[in-house]
Amino acid sequence: MIKKRNGEIIATNQKQNQTLEKLYGTISGRIILKMLTSPIISKTAGKYMDSPFSKPLIKSFIENNNIDTSQYIMKNFSSYNEFFTRKIKPGKRPVDYNQKHLISPCDSKMTAYKIKRNSIFKIKNSLYRISDILKNEFLARRYEGGYCLIYRLEVDDYHRYCYIDDGIKTDNIFILGELHTVNPVALKKYNIYKRNCREYTIMHTDNFGDVVQIEFGAMMVGRICNYHGEYNFIKGEEKGMFKFGGSTIVQLFEKDRIRPDSDILRNTRDGFETVVHYGEKVGISV
Q1: Which of 83, 105, 138, 180 is the most buried (most CB within 10 A)?
Q2: 91-116 pLDDT tens trace
Q3: What is the DSSP letter of 88?
Q4: Could you give the count of Cα atoms lying within 13 Å of 121 in the half-sphere of its Cβ?
């Protein structure tokens, strides 16, 4: 279940969940899933979503997911992916520039966890360790005692993401994985954070220490589009975007660097995700 910042409980994308229950909950569904996640199907689907032939999908997607198009810069999109990565209108996602305030990098459903040695994090029935995600035991241990923040995007979320502070980043490290959806229903059968393709960087930030940010691909296409390699960035600047497919961002913070907002910590303890938006305050530096 999901909560808004005001405490209102809302339902997640039910149609998407029902489809995934069929895919992951039956033998025939898992056979179909195996075919859908093969490299050749993934590449073919990606090319189709980038082509003009995918344009007819846009109208039904808007209707089925109740997209509020008034928030976005709408135009005659050349493909489904051009629509999927549409830009928000100026002023619709104001960025909190207070130096002490930690902001969300994206529109998403958020959870926050303390990191302990060999912690196994349960996120909607998915279990994983930080070292599994990074494939780097030494780097993972730097974040013991800190926080792991998970931002899960659904298909109707804004799929661009920003930098959370001023600073300098390292080059991106890509880890090839087997593509599976990041939707929570899927996690009953698969530890997808060990199987999804992902890309991470270390951001040397001015106010929150050395932050690792990991972007995860998803079922079928799973394309992660980061704009910069080694780079000097500023808070609120767009870092990248996800093309078609639900996606997730994970951020790792060192010990005694941040404190997530109390409602987010409380919701996480109670088994809820919290709705957050691009540029919105989600914590403070300590």
Answers
A1: 180
A2: 999 999 999 999 999 999 999 999 99
A3: B
A4: 25
